[in-house]
Structures are given as C-alpha cells and as structure tokens.
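User: Run a structure prediction on this.
Assistant: Running it now.
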Amino acid sequence: MTGPVTAPADTQPAEAPVPSSREVYRDLLVEFLDADERVVCLDSDTGLFNGVDFGKAAERYVNLGIAEQNLMGAAAGLARSGRIPYVNTMATFATTRALEQLKLDIALNNLPVRIAATHGGLSAGHLGATHHALEDLAVTRLLPNLTVLVPTDAATTARLLRQAQELPGPVYVRLGRNATPDLPYDAPPVVLGKAQRLREGDTLTLVATGPYPVHLALEAASALDAAGVSTTVLNLHTIKPLDTEALVDAARTSRAVVTVEEHWVSGGLGSAVAETIAELGLPVPVRRIGVGDRFAAGTGGQTHLLERNGITAEAILAGERHRLLRRQPPGDPGAHQAAAHDEDRPAHDAPWENGAGIRSASSRPAPISPWSSSAAPSDTMASICPGPRPKQPRRANSATSRRRYGSPTARAKPPIRM
C-alpha cells in the first residue's frame, strides 16, 4: 500500500511576485480610465503600458513620445478642458527638462494634472547620473498648489492614488522602478497628508520617506530600542502638505530628529523638517541622511548605490552613537561641556559603550567639571570645555598699546618726503 501522492517540489505553485509601485499605478490607472471618462493617459514612450488592454478607454491613451515639455503642455490644455490627465515620465525628466511647463502651465493655474514620475531616486541607477532623480522633491515641494507624494510600497501606492483622485489641484507622485519590500502588516492605515507612525518612542525620532529609507529607519530603530534608546519612526509619505503637527509632537519628546531620504540632503525631506523645527523654535537638533553635495557615486542597482552613498541603517546608528544620543539631561553638571566635547570625539574612543555599541546614560561616567579640584591644568580644561576661555587682562606694554598710544622709548619716525 502506498501513501498519498504529492507533486514534486519544483511543480508546486509559486507565490505571485510582489508588484512594483509603477506596476500598481499602471493597473490602477486602467481602472480609473474605465470608471471615469474624464481620465486621460498621456505617455512619453515609457514602455510601461506595452500590451495593456484599455478596452473602451483605448482612445484616451495617447503616446506623445519622448517630449516631456509637450507632455506637460498638452496635459495642462486637457485639464483646462475638464479632463483629468495622468502624465507618465521619469522623475528626473518631469522635474528638470519640463520644469517650466510644470511650473507655469500646471502649478500656476492649479490644474488637476497627475504626474506619475517613475524611476525616482536611485532606482534607475544602472543608467547612470543622467537618470538619477535626486532633486525632484526639492523642486516639486517649492511649487505652490502642488501635492507631493512618495508611496512606500505597493499597497501604499494604491491607497494614496485613490485618495488623490479627487483633489482639485495638481499631484506629483514619485514611483520606483522595481518591487520593494512591503511595510509591516500591522502598520496603521495610510492617510494622505498625515504622517504614518510606525514606531513609538520618546528619546529619538527618525523621519523617513520612500521605500528603502523607511525600511532602513525601522531597522535602525530596532537596534536602538534593543540598546535602550526608545525611538519613534515616522513615514512622511506626503512631502507636501507636510504633517507639521505629527512632526512637532514627536520632536517635543525627543532629544534629536534624524531624517532619511533617497535624495540630495539639500531641499528635500530633511530641509522641510529642519525648516519646520527651526521656524517653530523647537530646541531639537536635526541630522539629515541622504546623498551629500555631490553626484551619486557609481552606477549599479538601487540598493548598491544606497549603500555606496551612505544611506544605510549603519549610518543612522553611527551618528547617534557619537553625536546626538550622548547629550545629557539638562540638570546634569557639566552637561554642556561634555556634549560639546563629545561632538568631536573619534569613533574608536568609546570606553563606556554597552554591548550593542550604543552609549547609554546608565553606562556613562559622570563628567568632570573643569572648575572642580580634581580637574587637570589648563590643557585638560581646553579638552573638556573647548568653548571660549575667560578673557585675560590686556598687558599695558603690549605691541597693540604701543602702536595705539605711543611709547616714550619708541624711536620717532623720520618725516615723509613729498
């Protein structure tokens, strides 16, 4: 008697591959075209819609070729005529090559144009610097009337697009190229214009936007929590309008705020967060993690370029070990001097780190006040308290005094011959 027959392992049904954000957008747009006759799809020969069956809406798909300026102008005209155009192009071309049309034709007139900008950030890294989109959030968040969205995964993409469908003005949606990891299953629902709070803490706040930065922030937060550093993680999928209320609530209970983005550090999420905190006068330091003031190094896959350009969980942890988390409570003697000294202490000088490599308040020795009897001479004072030293009285016979007031022993200068 034989047992039940099972299929070989290689014939078992495989799990469906996770779709990318641009594929989710494509399928959802077909649904929008079928449900609303006002919706029009304008393509720039992206290849995203190859083989798509638009059904009765086929006449509302128009491929204008690689001509991004014309794409934006045509979209503005259709929107002025009562349509809802969805414009499809790569992120760097939408915000640089067609910026004038985006600014003057669409944003100025507050027209309901939806700009689906694929290959955002470093997702087209294999094509080189010409296709890196590290400026698009800085450009778009400056334009009045424009809503700016950065979905985190496939499900977030669908929810944000549905919520943005009825907005009266223009919308810019930054999409990736390949599939990215999903958010945790227990993540709270995504609401356009509201930050998504993924972790709750009261010591440090990590603010991230985009698929990989959000996951890197969650990874770093897990390590920090394990080391006793309670960390909040905010997913700011809506860059504009910015959820300042959630940001302020988190910052007020944190010692520091760290932003993480797949973008140049200037102009994007980090700048938006720093501006908000500075304008409201919150005494919280902000550190920005992104690509520095340079073109992204290298050509290759997205995760490879993120690591090569310093957008990693390790970068978040390293900064918090040696700079922000080593601040002491306000009432601790010598807190200001020790914090200032810690700013420049080398990474290897860590005698009081705990097992996880994170410096915690419980393992930190009491700071030595430069004014105590146990303090060393002036060289120790300078190393502990690198701030300005007390002013010394000016010597009466200094060179400055002789030049300014003259000296009885100074030799008279010969007369000037004209």
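Confidence is low (pLDDT under 50) at residues 1-14, 328-390.
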